[in-house]
Amino acid sequence: MLNFTCSSSSHWSNDWQSTSISLLSKEELSRLNQMRSPRRQTQFLAGRLLVRAFVSEHFACEPRKVNLAAVAPTFASCGGYHLVNVSLSHSADCLAVAIGKDMLGIDCELEYPSRDWLAIAKSYFHNEEISWLQKQPKSGLTRAFLRIWTAKEALSKCSGEDLGKLLNTTSIINDVCPWPTRLAEFHCWRGGIEGGAYLALVGKDGPPPPSSHLNGTYRANFNDSGGREVRLFRFGASHLS
Asked: Please, where are the H alpha helices in the chain?
């Protein structure tokens, strides 16, 4: 089992924040009240609401009974029983949620066209990746950067390995370089989504190799259980596809 959904909270119905607040636990409310940034509060509420909606659609548990850790939830439970592992990612108003029976990681990033992606790469990436990015056409630099960044951040969330070390010691350029051998059990799917964003999902389960894609949904609202299809394409432990 490996499922994902994504959306933009800027398009949700006007009452979504009050709906999310009504579902929070005491611990989550305390966490929310500690946040000083309105933007961070909005992301917190949006993420919790989308997770609860998505989990409740897959399990016989009402949204208000879906329990999440107040800080960085990695699983959802109901009535004291573990339901599913969870991963959540934000980028401004864009957010994505993945659920699965094993550990997993998801990362979404907006494709800001004015950002100096090459300068960021020089601060964090492996030297081979920096050289590869310098050869990319200007029009494709943003997407090339995010193909690397999102895959590594999702891998970090799933494997528990330090993101900083993955960024500058693991090269996954040109769609042919492998994960390190120690991470061969992890599989990654990635691709562009609506709203000018890029998404990567890493997990141990899901369609077995050589399955080349993974289908999810993009939602117009947090409770849009149908949504429009989103297709991510897989690269494995030994090659990218």
From this structure: 16-23, 26-34, 38-58, 117-124, 127-134, 141-159, 163-169
